[in-house]
Amino acid sequence: MNPRKSKLDRPLTDPEALEGILRRLKRIEGQVRGLQRMAEEGRPLGELLDQINATRKAMDSVAS
């Protein structure tokens, strides 16, 4: 077994990269809150699904 840790096991130490990730996560948080609000307001399912897909794409961008 390789004693060196993989990239995924190491903490994120690049401040600029961390700042970018946190900024994207905060944006996603806002999208999710918007989804909750839309559901509470009884918005059409199609609108909710569009926003869910946008949120999913935003999450995928953080993961890549």
From TrEMBL:
CDD domains in the record, alphabetically? CsoR-like_DUF156
What biological-process terms (Gene Ontology) are attached? negative regulation of DNA-templated transcription
Q: Which domain of life is it from?
A: Bacteria
Q: Name one GO molecular function term.
A: DNA binding
Q: What is this protein called?
A: Transcriptional regulator
Species of origin reads: Meiothermus ruber
Q: What is the lineage of its organism?
A: Bacteria, Thermotogati, Deinococcota, Deinococci, Thermales
